[in-house]
Amino acid sequence: MSGLKPKLLLFSHICSPVFVTGAEKLLLLFARELIHRFHCVLVVPQEGIISERARELGIKVTVLELPLAISLYTAAPTIAEEIKGLIKHPSWSKLHSLLADERPSYVFVNTSVHPLPAIAAKSLGIPTIWAMMETIMDTPSRGASADFIASHSDVVIGISHTTLQPFQGKQEMVKTFMLPPYLDRDQLLPGSWHYHRARLREQLGWGEVHLVAGYIGATIYPNKGLEPFIQAMLPIAAADARARFLVVGNPVDEVYYQKCQTLVQMSGYADRFVFHPFVEQIQQVFPALDVVVVPSLVSEGFGMTALEGMAFGKGVVAFASGGLTEILTVTGNEPFLVHTGDVAGLSASVNLLLSNQELLNGVGERNALAAQNIFGVEAFRARLEELMALLPFPFDVQGSLLRGSGPTVYLVEQGKRRPFVSEKAFLQRGYRFEDVALVPESVLERFPPGSPMYEIRNSRSAKRKRRRKSITRIRKNRRTALRGRRLIRGRSKGRKAHRRRR
Fold first, then answer.
1. Beta-strand pair 315-319/337-338
2. What is the CATH number of domain 7-178?
């Protein structure tokens, strides 16, 4: 690790070659910021979309397929037995070999269902961060699931209070930290929104006169609430001829998806609905909507679609399911939270926004501002700094380059932080600024100050100085030798004279 950032191994439980799941999307989102503080390596079960995007970020990718423990998420009573079976899997030894070869400073485990990296890391004494991207199911075995995760982590991070709720009261076992996702508005290319709005609406045969409510999900299955969405939108379609509805997503449960399409076809309003595949570049879809509807039937870990809708300046209506409640409440959208499963309430809230353009515009402007202030990249970086202060030291920090909030860069050597007195002093030793890890001041203070790293003098000057020293040393030695010879001669003459007198 000498001269480099501490190494962080990020373990993804999935790497889809077809579409990016919510957990994958969040892991890649976190990685964009973590690379500024760590030398990151992404470990995936197979090649896919996020492995390609990670390489584009300069992240090394390693493929290692590891079995999962779904029981940790479902909080099934078979957790202990399932874990014992996983450790007997052939990949267990390969995982240890990977950790031994990479020698990471930290391990980052994504989602509750991916226990093997955490077990192996802890067995080797590697500090482990376990990220809860979802809410562990509330069953009688939920405590056992949380205990297992806590006992194999140094820090458990959650993307919402909802995801951390199972770990309440376990602070003696593990540190917990809430690190919600962020959105970087610039990466969404706001200059293109007007174009994409007009283009998609034109493709669908809609104009600015139409009022569009949308349902967006990377994957569509019953718990994501497509059926309640359709049921809630049909009364709006009947009441307003301008209303249009866009469903964007890839079906996972084909039977359920066809059932929802049949519901639309049988309603008599099929011409008002469009079913569209999921689009990775979300700026091509969200601008075309007026209201974003998130009717999730399960306790969401966060609810990224809701935040994305706000970032695009849209009105957002959602079921009060887990993290969705937190997002809408903190951004001032509590009036647009609907009791989970309340189809009539969902319909009324969406209709309220679509039928009042002034209200819709005001809510959209407020949402865009709130999304930026509360869930923008700067807010995320501030939280990340707090998380860094919680992390234990890696075993090998010797030779690390660190910088706190100030401009001074330090070299950790023999347990002390040695400051470089200038940029020249830093560069003369062959270091690179991209290898400097940003750490909180509290981390720097754990190392006592050491001697400064001064500039290395010009090589020619150094040679001349050494030559002068050498000449001076030779002259001095000659003078010493000459005095010695004179002294010896004087003594010899004295002895001869003494003998003659005798």
1. parallel
2. 3.40.50.2000
Q: Which two tokens stand for residue 202?
A: 């034109």
Q: Which of 428, 427, 408 is nearest to 418 (CA)?
A: 408
Instruction: Give CA–CA dist 375/248, Å, rounded.
Output: 24
Q: How far apart are CA 38 and CA 495, in angstroms?
A: 80
* Amino acid (one-letter) located at 115: P
Instruction: Output the 3-class SS for 397-447.
Output: CCCCEEECCCCCEEEEECCEEEEECCHHHHHHCCCCHHHCEECCHHHHCCC
Mean pLDDT, residues 366-379: 96
Instruction: Say if CB 42 and CB 60 are below 8 A apart.
Output: yes
Nearest to 307 by CA among 275, 333, 281: 333
Token pair, residue 254, equals 């084909």
DSSP 128: E
Helix axes 343-354, 226-239, angle to 10 degrees: 50
The amino acid occupying position 397 is: V
> Would you list the DSSP string of 156-201?
EEESSHHHHGGGTT-TTT-EEEE----B-GGGG-GGGHHHHHHHHH
Provide the pLDDT for residue 464: 65
The CA distance from 232 to 106, in Å, is: 47
**pLDDT computed for residue 123 by the predictor:** 81
> How is residue 136 annotated by DSSP?
P
In this structure, what token pair is assigned to residue 336? 């647009």
Reply yes or no on whether the pLDDT at 469 is more than 80.
Answer: no
Q: Are the C-beta atoms of 119 and 87 separated by less than 8 Å?
A: yes
pLDDT for 33 equals 95
Question: Residue 181: what pLDDT?
Answer: 96
Taking residue 228's Cβ as centre, other Cβ atoms within 10 Å add up to 24
Per-residue pLDDT, averaged over 10-39, amounts to: 93
Whole-Å CA distances, 205 to 198, 209, 387: 10, 11, 48
Q: Tell me the helices (H) and strands (E) count for the chain, helix number first.
A: 19, 17
Q: How confident is the model at residue 240 (pLDDT cuts 50, 70, 90)?
A: very high
> What residue spans define the domains of the chain?
7-178, 185-375
Q: Do domains 7-178 and 185-375 have the same CATH topology?
A: yes
How far, in Å, CA of 59 to CA of 51, rounded? 9
Pull the structure tokens for residue 437. Answer: 């890890």
Burial environment of residue 242 by CB neighbours within 10 A (0 to 12, 13 to 18, 19 or more): middle
Burial 341-360 (b: 16+ CB within 10 A, else e): ebbebbbebbbbbbeeeeeb
Confidence at residue 393, expressed as pLDDT on a 0 to 100 scale: 74
Q: Is the four-CA dihedral 318, 17, 58, 419 of positive or negative sign?
A: positive
Q: Which CATH class is domain 185-375?
A: alpha beta
What gap in Å lies between CA 287 and CA 199, rounded to an integer?
10
